[in-house]
Amino acid sequence: MSATTERLEAFRAEIGDIPCYDDEKLVQAKSRDYYWYSPILKEMLDRCSGQLLVRPRNEDEVRAIAGSVARQRIPLTVRGGGTGNYGQCVPVEGGVILEITGLSAIHEITEGRVICGAGARIGQVESAVAETGQMLSMFPSTKRVATMGGFVAGGSGGIGSLRHGMLRDGANITFLRIVTVEERPRIVELHGRDILKAQHAYGTNGIITAMDYALKPATDWVHSIALLDGYRPALEMAIEAQASGLDAYLMTVVDRRFARFYRRLGDYFPATRDAVFSMVAPDAMADFRTITAGFGGTVSLAGSLGEMEASNLPPAWECGWNHTTLQALKLEPGVWTYLQVAYPRPFDPELVARQQERYGDELYFHHEMARMDGEVQVFALPLLRWYGRERTYEIVREMEGTDGCRVFDPHVITIEDGGMKEIDAVQIEFKRQADPHGLMNPGKTRGWLPGMARA
């Protein structure tokens, strides 16, 4: 269902001197994200590609592009750094790819907030706010490449979620500026809880051009590894640390079998002991060591970010969340994929012990500590040895049906099937207003039906 040559030529004529490319290799490269973490998505999406790439330099050019694709009825896919894992920015119906990275300006930094262009790299914004003694409330493990708008449109949580909740919770984001995809594009500003109309919508309902983001006072977190004799003691140590109110920005419990994927860590993370990777406030390190010792563990590494970089060691945030999957796939491609699991509250380590016994070498576990609704929420992103689609979904059914967990399926491209588990009527209603012809990222939401499109 690609756009016709005639429509693409008309589009190029209408957008004038806005940078536009049809080089096949370039367009193909910009039609990719990290969907290849999933063999199921790899088979589904490998042949998908856009037809043109556009790189607007400002919001006026975004409006010109939006108006033209609306008039020509050409599918439109917006991309940032392309670090998503579910094919969010892969165009399944061809059309135009809009790379938003040209809108990278940082407009304003105040106490507790930053307003920036959606195309700003997260690392770029982090460096700018650091000059004011502040830091981002949370960020993805791919922050070196990911964009602010891409994180908002495709993400749900990350490093910092232990302290500040999930991305959509509270005040992490309170403002989005959006260009509608209509013959005469409008600017829509969403404030407060209204940002949920477009947050985590995979870019299906309007082009985010600017946004705000929460800032917190900067802390020179101590990147730490605690080693314990057993996975259950490691889990219990992390839970106790949270129950005691330990000031931490990240806490990830990692199975010892991951050690071979982290070669740079050497004896800091040996294959004979399980680990807790953490970012701990400097004045909380004494308590961290005491809690670790209480579970028979030792702290093998503790250093500031500068010290980690000087020693050529990875920061703690690159040893947890989905960076674990990336490290495994680098070393053993084709062997692994992964799942995303939310555990019932209150968390029971015994459930994890049963799962480890049930799956053995088929699943390598690591658990992430986060907050939802003000309470500690434990997630897992286990490595799953790839034995095919049937076995993958057998495990999903066991975890959900037998164990009472909730699996956020990383092997699908639709919002509802991957995480929400139900159609978000509010987002679909906003799509009627912001994308009335249904041109944005088609195929990524089941809630939009062909009959909804305006003629």
Describe the protein.
- The chain is α+β, with helices and mostly antiparallel strands and 455 residues long.
- Helices cover 30% and strands 22% of the residues.
- It is built from 15 helices and 21 strands.
- The strands form four sheets. It has an eight-stranded antiparallel β-sheet. Strands 5, 6, 7, 8, 9 and 10 form a six-stranded antiparallel β-sheet that branches.
- Helix 1 runs antiparallel to helix 4 and helix 8 (231-243) packs antiparallel against helix 12 (349-359).
- The longest helix is centred in the first third of the chain and has 14 residues, at 59-72.
- The relative contact order is 0.13.
Question: What topology does this entry show?
Answer:
Blueprint: H1 5-15, E1 20-21, H2 24-29, H3 39-45, E2 52-54, H4 59-72, E3 76-79, E4 96-99, E5 106-110, E6 113-117, H5 122-130, E7 134-136, H6 148-154, H7 161-164, E8 175-179, E9 187-191, E10 207-217, E11 222-228, H8 231-243, E12 248-254, E13 274-280, H9 285-294, E14 298-303, H10 305-310, H11 323-331, E15 336-338, E16 341-342, H12 349-359, E17 363-364, E18 366-372, E19 375-380, E20 383-385, H13 389-402, E21 406-407, H14 415-420, H15 425-434
Parallel strand pairs: 2-4, 3-4
Antiparallel strand pairs: 1-2, 5-6, 6-10, 7-10, 8-9, 8-10, 11-13, 11-14, 12-13, 12-18, 15-20, 16-19, 16-21, 17-20, 18-19
Helix pairs in contact: 1-4, 8-12
